[in-house]
Amino acid sequence: MVSVMLKEEEGELESRMALTAAVMADKSRSRMLCALMDGRAWTATELSAVADVSASTASAHLARLCEQHFVVALAQGRHRYFRLASAEIAELLERLMGVAWATSTPRKITTPLSLRHARTCYDHLAGEVAVRLFDTFVSRQWLTPDGETLTELGQEKLTEMGIVLFTGSSRRKLACGCLDWSERRYHPGGVLGATLLRWFTEQKWIKTQTGSRHVTFTPPGIRKLNSEFGIKTTR
């Protein structure tokens, strides 16, 4: 009896895994999900343009994404907006981007230099600067080389700077190394990555652009990035 139940549970898990993979297997849905990685809420019309499909086809894709809990719909007045359902979904997509790049035939990277330098990736910082930040944390022994553990020293130093990590009731990892799809190296993810982006924004170290994932560092941000983390940048 126990063996039968276990097989049924395994079968259910396998079915759910297949459904999850099927959601991302469609190119139009993948384009929508990648667009939503900027952390904003998009309208169905905007997402149909991104995916280059008709409004009716976009609605069908969004219904599927909502059904499988990849995306949630938000109503505001007469308008409906769509955003990623959770940080866990964003982390899954980011890791998938890394796997996709790592397993593809090597080719010249065509990502715009501004996005390669610094960009938002859902709720955390990505790009060259974020990768260098990860390397700094590891070299200072604030973070383990795999990015999975923020050390006691790391928590102590960040707290001294006023960077406090709040996990709340979330099951999200405190820290994780996310494979940056443009740099092919790790940048900080998890609660740590989200906290750093929020703190940089509050300190006015960075500026974001509406409708773009591009991030620029302000003059104070450029100075502080160098003095606090030893990272030199000119933009």
Question: How would the blueprint of this fold be written?
Answer:
Elements: H1 2-25, H2 27-35, E1 42-43, H3 44-51, H4 55-67, E2 71-76, E3 79-84, H5 87-103, H6 113-117, E4 119-121, E5 124-126, H7 128-139, H8 152-161, E6 176-179, E7 186-189, H9 190-202, E8 206-208, E9 215-217, H10 219-229
Antiparallel strand pairs: 1-3, 2-3, 4-5, 6-7, 8-9
Helix pairs in contact: 2-3, 3-4
Domain HTH arsR-type: 9-104
Pfam family, one: HTH_5
InterPro entries: ArsR-like_HTH, HTH_ArsR_DNA-bd_dom, HTH_Metal-responsive_Reg, WH-like_DNA-bd_sf, WH_DNA-bd_sf
Label this structure with key terms.
235 residues, alpha+beta, three-stranded antiparallel sheet, two-stranded antiparallel ribbon, DNA binding, HTH_ArsR_DNA-bd_dom, DNA-binding transcription factor activity, WH-like_DNA-bd_sf
